[in-house]
Amino acid sequence: QVQLVESGGGLVQPGGSLRLSCAASGRTFSNYPMGWFRQAPGKEREFVALITSGGGTNYADSVKGRFTISRDNAKNTVYLQMNSLKPEDTAVYYCKRYKLGPRDLDYWGQGTQVTVSS
After folding, report:
1. Which residues contact residue 116 at a Cβ distance below 8 angstroms, ignoring those fewer than 6 apart?
2. Mean pLDDT for back-to-back runs of 10 residues, the chain (118 residues)
């Protein structure tokens, strides 16, 4: 059973920074694309960022230039560095391990709350 555990959320003022971490169980972490999603109150969950097994990245337009996704395969961990935070970034942030094929599954973490407010 794969487990994803997010950490690093909290309350931050507009313009501030936070770094989220997602620690994954399993011995083949490096093979999997990993992503971050978020869900604000009353809204659907939305894509934030993706990092491939090879280190390629992709971002939602709303966070480009402010957020950076990275991974440390030795630590089975993916990170989301969030800078220049805005109130509209307030959400529960979820880590996702993408499936590799039709017999695989997507896995999600439990989420970590990020609140941007003065």
Report:
1. 12, 13, 14, 16, 85, 86, 87, 88, 89, 90
2. 95 98 92 97 97 97 98 97 98 96 93 97
One-letter amino acid for residue 67 of the chain:
F
DSSP H helices, 1-118, are none
Q: Are 84 and 95 in contact (CB under 8 A)?
A: no
Task: Select from 37, 13, 9 the least CA-distant residue to 86.
Answer: 13
Q: How far is CA 70 from the centre of its chain?
A: 10
Closest of 99, 60, 67, 95 to residue 83, by C-alpha: 67
What pLDDT, on the 0 to 100 scale, is given for residue 26?
81
Backbone dihedral region of 42: left (phi > 0), alpha (psi from -120 to 50 degrees) or beta? left
